[in-house]
Every structure is written in structure tokens, then in C-alpha cells.
Amino acid sequence: MYSLPYDGLGATISDTSELSLTPTSTEEVKLKVLVSDGRANTSISFKVKLCLCENGGECDWNSTSNNAGFSVVSCICTPGWFGNDCSVELDSCTENPCYPGVQCIDLPPPEVNAACGNCPNGLMGDGFTCYDSNECADEIANDCDHLCTNTLGSYECSCNDGYQLYIDNKACIGYHPSNGFQARHCCAVQLNAATTQNLIK
Ligand SMILES: [Ca+2]
Ligand SMILES: [Ca+2]
Predict the structure, then answer these.
(1) Shortest-distance ligand to the CA of residue 151
(2) Measured in angstroms, how far is the CA atom of residue 109 from the centroid of ligand 1?
(3) Which superfamily, per CATH, for 90-132?
């Protein structure tokens, strides 16, 4: 014969002597069962381990944290979740995994990595890492007449001494005593107000 000496827990003992308790909080409770055969009584106390893991987290029954109430079982969370009960979604953007200025998109579990937007204009890469291409190292990648200076995301042209940079910022024009400034390869074109717009590198 079994009975529960403490009321109010919602615990029950079935006809088949199965004890059932569904806790509504982690507050400490005393769970004691009185056992009697009609002549002698004894009691059994239970240490209750509570598993509160959410989002598919697995209960590690060998590891508990006593919080003065129930013994709460530790959780092994599924990817993308963390926290004592696996209820907190991992924000993969917290540590700024993307290149500065690139949009970071946190992805839902089970994804643990973030996604990054496109690299800034002029830079190449996957958004996590972006890098400048040295246009000056490749003659096809730049159209500077004379000198090329690599910059982050672009490049700048300049001219040798005695030349001026044309308004397209790429061609160089040289000074001829008789004709004034002329483009290096457009020697037939004298630069004046009427012809500068025809000057194409
Ligand atoms: Ca996430
Ligand atoms: Ca560059």
C-alpha cells in the first residue's frame, strides 16, 4: 500500500503502483512515498532529476546542476542552440565574422555559421574575407598611360615628369613647345577647347 504524505505537487500513484509527477517549475519539492503493509510503515524519498532541454537538446543524466530545488540535468544542445536549456539561438554575427562593412546574416539552426553579403565595390572575396586586387601588377587590369598606384578597391594613374594627367585620369599628355600639351599617342591632336573631347586614350 503506497501513499503520498505531501499534497499539492500533483503527484499520483496509479493502481499499478507507478509514481507520476509532472513538475510545473524547478522550485524545490519534497517527494516522499509512504509504504505500508498494514502492520509496519516505512517511507521512500526520491531525488528527482529534471530535464529541461529544449530544441532537441539531449539530457546528460550524469551531469546536474543543483539550483536549490530540483536537480536539473545538463543539456547537450543541438547545433545552433546554446544556454543551460538550449533555448537560446546562437547569433553567428556576434563576433563580426564578415569583412568590415559587409552585411552579416545570422542563419537559423542547425546552421552555426553566418552568411556574409558581397564584398565592397572593388574588392574580391567571399564576404568573410575581402581583398584588393593589385590592378597595377597586371597591364590588362589597368589603363594608366604612365604610372599606376594601387589603392584599396581601385587604382590611380599618374604621369612621368613633364606630362599632365588628362581629364579621364588615365591618359598622360606631354608638352610640345609648338603644340602645347598633347596626348602621348594622340600626337596629331592639339589639346585645346575644341579637341579635348575627341581625345581618347
Ligand atoms: Ca543563428
Ligand atoms: Ca586595387
Answers:
(1) 2
(2) 6
(3) Laminin (2.10.25.10)
Q: pLDDT tens digits for 111-135?
A: 999 999 999 998 999 999 999 999 9
Residue 96 CA to ligand 1 center (angstroms) comes to 13
Cell match 504524505: residue?
Answer: 5
Stated pTM of the model: 0.57
Domains 90-132 and 135-198 share a fold: yes
CATH architecture group of domain 50-89: Ribbon (2.10)
The number of the ligand nearest the C-alpha atom of 137 reads 2
Measured in Å, residue 122 CA sits from the centre of ligand 2 at 7
For 136-188, how does the pLDDT look when each residue is reduced to its tens digit (9 = 90+)?
Answer: 999 899 999 999 999 999 999 999 998 999 999 999 998 776 766 665 554 43
CB-based contacts of 167-173 (< 8 A; 24+ apart in sequence): 167/196, 168/201, 170/143, 170/144, 170/145, 170/201, 171/145, 171/199, 171/201, 172/145, 172/146, 173/199
Ligand nearest to the CA of 90: 1
Domain range annotation of the chain = 2-46, 50-89, 90-132, 135-198
Q: Which fold has domain 135-198?
A: Laminin (2.10.25)
